[in-house]
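Researcher: I'd like a candidate sequence for this fold, 206 residues long. If you have to choose between options at a position, lean toward the conservative one.
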């Protein structure tokens, strides 16, 4: 069981001894690999295929998103990294929220239908418009929930970023690479250039 450490100037509320950067690195690596492996196994599952059911036990087929899809796997690893290691605002000493384009790049690269995207506003539980509830037993049931990495922010030019050149980093969200995953490029997957040298550990994931 984890043992707590007493409060200090750096951690006024105290902390657990194993809450370290290395522990977080290992957790991200292990979970990303486990998720990827599990998805690959599902997509290659011959039993489910022969029974004509998907991963949820419903009639249908499992859509191949990771198997022989390097763009999707890379987009997933990048997104997993960015939401766990957000970049910092050196002025306000705060972590920056996830760029909406980073979220959308994952859904585009993995070829999810547009109605499944969850990179919208928090007030819509990350949908792009209010959800129409399902009526059951005279009660309104909402199916959405917050998508990991939210809230999302547009990575766009503002007065604060005036003078930044297209393709440069705009430090208003994570990873803040302007044009890296634009919604205007929906016809093909878009891969980011990873420049979060102090944050992302993509190279160590495999």
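Model: Candidate sequence:
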């Amino acid at each position: 069981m984890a043992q707590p450490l007493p409060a200090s100037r750096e951690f006024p509320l105290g902390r657990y001894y194993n809450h370290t950067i290395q522990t977080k690195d290992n957790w991200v690596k292990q979970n990303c690999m486990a998720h990827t492996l599990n998805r690959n196994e599902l997509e290659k599952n011959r039993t489910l295929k022969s029974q004509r059911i998907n991963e949820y036990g419903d009639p249908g087929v499992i859509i191949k998103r990771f198997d022989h899809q390097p763009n999707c796997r890379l987009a997933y690893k990048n997104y997993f990294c960015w939401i766990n290691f957000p970049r910092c605002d050196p002025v306000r000493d705060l972590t920056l929220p996830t760029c909406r384009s980073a979220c959308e790049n994952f859904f585009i690269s993995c070829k999810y239908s547009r109605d499944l995207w969850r990179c919208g506003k928090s007030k819509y539980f990350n949908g792009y418009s209010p959800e129409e509830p399902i009526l059951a037993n005279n009660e309104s049931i909402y199916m959405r929930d917050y998508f990991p990495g939210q809230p999302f922010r547009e990575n766009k030019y503002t007065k604060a970023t005036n003078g930044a050149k297209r393709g440069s980093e705009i430090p208003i969200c994570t990873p803040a690479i302007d044009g890296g995953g634009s919604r205007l490029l929906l016809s093909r997957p878009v891969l980011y250039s990873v420049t979060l040298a102090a944050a992302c550990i993509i190279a160590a994931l495999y």
